[in-house]
Amino acid sequence: QVQLVESGGGLVQPGGSLRLTCAASGSIFSINNMAWSRQAPGNQRELVATITSGGSANYADSVKGRFTISRDNAKNTVYLQMNSLKPEDTAVYYCYAQLNRYDYWGQGTQVTVSS
Fold first, then answer.
1. Beta carbons within 8 Å of 68's beta carbon, 6+ residues apart
2. What's the CA gap between 60 and 46, in Å, rounded?
3. Are residues 70 and 50 in contact, defined by beta-carbon separation less than 8 angstroms?
4. Which of 113, 110, 94 is nearest to 47 (CA)?
């Protein structure tokens, strides 16, 4: 069974950093685009960052300069390095990947930025 499993969320103070990890497992023949999105209570889901199979990345304006998306194709893993975190970054973060030409989402990991 193909699935995405996220880890790395938690509670952090404003200005702090966290690194999210999302690993794809199962019978995987191809991985194309990968991404991270987030959803705060009462808000719509927001696309945070995307990365192509070739490593080209794009970011939402709200995180540009603070977050970095990267991937390790050998490990079928995508990362989100989050620096200079703000309370408004508090949300459930979901990873996405196109695996074997199908769209998959992870179960989500909570990130809370609070003093």
1. 49, 57, 80, 81, 83
2. 8
3. no
4. 94
**Residue 60: φ, ψ to 5°:** -70, 150
Residue-wise pLDDT for 84-107, tens only, equals 999 999 999 999 999 999 999 999
Q: Supply 53's token pair.
A: 């199979």
Range 5-27 burial, b when 16+ CB lie within 10 A, else e:
ebebbeebeeeeebebbbbbeee
| pLDDT (tens digit per residue) in 25-58 | 999 999 999 999 999 989 999 999 999 999 999 9
- Distance from C-alpha of 108 to C-alpha of 85, rounded to nearest angstrom: 18
